[in-house]
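Hi W.,

Here's what went into the run:
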Amino acid sequence: MAKPKRKTQRHVLTYMEDAVCQLLENREDISQYGIARFFTEYFNSVCQGTHILFREFSFVQATPHNRVSFLRAFWRCFRTVGKNGDLLTMKEYHCLLQLLCPDFPLELTQKAARIVLMDDAMDCLMSFSDFLFAFQIQFYYSEFLDSVAAIYEDLLSGKNPNTVIVPTSSSGQHRQRPALGEAGMLEGVEASLFYQCLENLCDRHKYSCPPPALVKEALSNVQRLTFYGFLMALSKHHGINQALGALPDKGDLMHDPAMDEELERLLLPFLRLAQVPGLVNSVTASPEASCLPSRTPPRVGSPWRPLHHSRKVDGESDGSTEETDESET
Amino acid sequence: MDCQAEVNCGLHLVIQTSSLPEKNKVEFKLNKDTSSFPGRLLQHDLERNYSSRQGDHINLVSSSLSSFPILQRSSEEKILYSDRLSLERQKLTVCPIINGEDHLRLLNFQHNFITRIQNISNLQKLISLDLYDNQIEEISGLSTLRCLRVLLLGKNRIKKISNLENLKSLDVLDLHGNQITKIENINHLCELRVLNLARNFLSHVDNLNGLDSLTELNLRHNQITFVRDVDNLPCLQHLFLSFNNISSFDSVSCLADSSSLSDITFDGNPIAQESWYKHTVLQNMMQLRQLDMKRITEEERRMASVLAKKEEEKKRESHKQSLLKEKRRLTINNVARQWDLQQQRVANIATNEDRKDSDSPQDPCQIDGSTLSAFPEETGPLDSGLNNALQGLSVIDTYLVEVDGDTLSLYGSGALESLDRNWSVQTAGMITTVSFTFIEFDEIVQVLPKLKIKFPNSLHLKFKETNLVMLQQFNALAQLRRIDQLTIDPQGNPVVNFTLWKYYVLFRLSHFSMQKINGTEVTQNDMIMAERLFGILAHVASSELPQYRLISILGDARKKQFQYLLESKGKKPGIINEENNDSKRLVGENTNRATLNYTTRDFYNEKLEEIKEKKKFCKTYIEDLVKEATEINMKNEALQKLWPQMFIELVRDAVIEIRNKNSYMKLCLQQITDQK
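Here's what came out:
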């Protein structure tokens, strides 16, 4: 009982510390409009999940809530990229991550990419949803995954899996080039044995772990699995995704009605400009035709629909666009 | 070419005979007045003067004793033509033995098949020997002919000039139409006046010293590319160089130093085709009276000097230009080299950080920025003059600043300092394009404000080899006043490999309404796509950030600019955005993306370092607060526990006290008086 309490207490302290730190940094500006208001805004933004925007990585990964918020922010900001159907390289995804968090480490993105690409051909293009779900697992459960990697190594080399395993440093995953020769003809490790070790790990682990029941579900279909196979299974598992609560289901990944409305509003002047003859450079048929679902507005054909649309929204949602999570499942 | 024009001096060897019967029209005219081209005309003349009947009454008797035929003349003829003998067209293959004619002075062997000069050593009074049109391969057999004055060996097969040592009185030497490749062994011929080496295989002219009497030198129809030593000929007046391979005046520069030369021909040479031919020759040879057989007029001379001056100017100018160009090229090479080394060094450091073990990095950082010889493989063909001038450059700069009309080009990070210079308003105002090469983008970011001020009309920015690796870096360009065109060269800028980079640029810098990126026009569809892709990012970046974050990110300077954004936090962001987008489209920066900034890596790390201290303090502060709070809480809890008991005791004590009213009153009064 004490443990969970301490956990949440610790996190509250983290936010308190950070709040005071922010206050110190922006002393002059904040003093203008009041400290009480500052604290209100700060904790509001923590609740809304916007506190991690453009913050340094050490803060972004400090608490599970921060991580969830970051994942969510990334999804919301760059969902349009995914919607457009572009396949990007790992480096480019990393770039996008850096837009939100300037010092986000490349290592994490690389690890996430490895999950998608099954540790092969790191220059390959990846789809937005593949990357995002893999990234979620990698980022949210980083410490857990490091320990799992260590366990996997040990199982591969035949060590006793029930000995106490200390989470190794992050280089653990580097060592993870499976020595297939040692495991004989069969690849990976036995699923049930692996699960037992994981279960032990989850009990002991002070960092967040995926719910063991769901992990068991993910492992239920296979006899043997490789490390990256396991991670891939985790990332594709709907239950785990839902348990995390950051991202919507894969099917709904591209849907975010509120943001789409907002986008329409932003695009309005552009579309209007496109109507005015002579004002446009050259409206050529765009070769990069985006594969937009039918929900998105028509491009140049009927300019009036979006306007009408947005007015309706204005009337309905009174200040609701300030709330960001209203489309959350 | 074979013109019959009058030349002042020349030689035509003609020997006048006394009146003779027709059959003996042998005439050798020795005439110092009229002139012609000795070699050919001589032969011409001789042919003309000959009658159809060839030769004198000659009997060639073959002797059984030797292989040579023996010549015999009737004593009548011997007396009549005692000093001359003509054996022309006698189908001779060898020189016959000539007996009893030792006072012969003129000997003619023209048009035979003689291969060797022999059997004439006894004719020691010979002054003219004509072996024109034979098959002689070597000059020999002449060593006894010390009186010889005219030697005609045209149209033979002679490969080498030799064995003329004893012919010190030689006046005319005709070797035209042979296979001679080199001028040699004639330096002792100090009385030679005419030398004909036309139609040979000479490739150059030198070794002419010692010919102190030479007035005419015929070198037509050779392969001469350069001429030397002509200034050593004190009497030379006529020089014929037609139909050779002379292409520049430098290769015949010695002619300028010859004060005696008055007549020269260059026709049929490449040099004669050049536009500067005539006036260059005239300008360099002021003593000339005739060029290519045409007299030179005063007008021509004047024109020549004017044109020559212009040529000089042009040459100097282009020399200067090529010098500058060369320097520029070398500097850029140097900058590129340093850039490469720097990149390698960074890569080495990065890979060394990856591996935990630290090998000694192969560190090629011994940059020697001051050697010309550093680029031997890259020097193109340079003039010798250019090379000499460059040797004087002891240090090559490590950066280069260039202004070329409307373009300012900066190479190397040192060049960024030049933005501080005092640029004249005119020059600075003309600059519309600024190009950065071999400079880290992070360094460029820091000087962008200066750029904005000093070069207000710069509309086109070009980046090459500037290490653009992140989309974020483009945020830094938003602070400029205006950009119409952006060119990011793929070389040295990995960011170009990203699929989305152009859209991001268009999105972030939408307030510039850029016309072109990397040469391609920006279409409205591009703009729409950019907004579509990143519009939500902008929205999130502006409306979802809490007030204080906005302030801290935007910074003091731009607070005013975005005052209305800050004030609007309470209102519906939707409307405001619409207003912003419509009205502020082309004027100010799009507010909703103003928070997308770029701080260079170094600055960022610095900031984080600074924050560390604060964080530590905050941590301890909060911990203290927590401690205090928990203490207070504990005390509170303790108090809660103890309070009922305490309360009961308080009440009991009070009740016990008041039990006896009288004694209590007395106690109170006592307490009051004690107090005083």
